[in-house]
Amino acid sequence: IATIPTLVFSFTNLRINFGGTSLLIVTGVALETMKQIEAQMIMRHYKGFLK
After folding, report:
1. Containing structural domain, residue 16
2. How many separate domains does the chain show?
């Protein structure tokens, strides 16, 4: 993930204003958000001892 900006620049000569660190942060936030949504969906359909 951290090398994607370098690869894009070398193949397209298109300069990207963000680096590998920002891509790692965005990826981490996206994965954590997906985990949170999945946990909420599981709790929504949970029929355990709470009823």
Report:
1. 4-44
2. 1
Quick check: is 51 in a domain? no
Cα–Cα distances in angstroms (integers) from residue 26 to residues 8, 21, 32, 43, 47, in the given order: 17, 9, 10, 26, 34
pLDDT in tens, the chain (51 residues): 667 777 777 787 766 666 677 778 888 999 999 999 999 888 887 766 555
Assign 5 to helix, strand or coil. Answer: helix
Tell me the three state secondary structure of residue 23: helix
pTM of the entire predicted model: 0.57
- Give a yes or no: residue 50 inside a domain: no
Tell me which residue of 41, 6, 39 sits closest to 20, measured CA to CA. 6
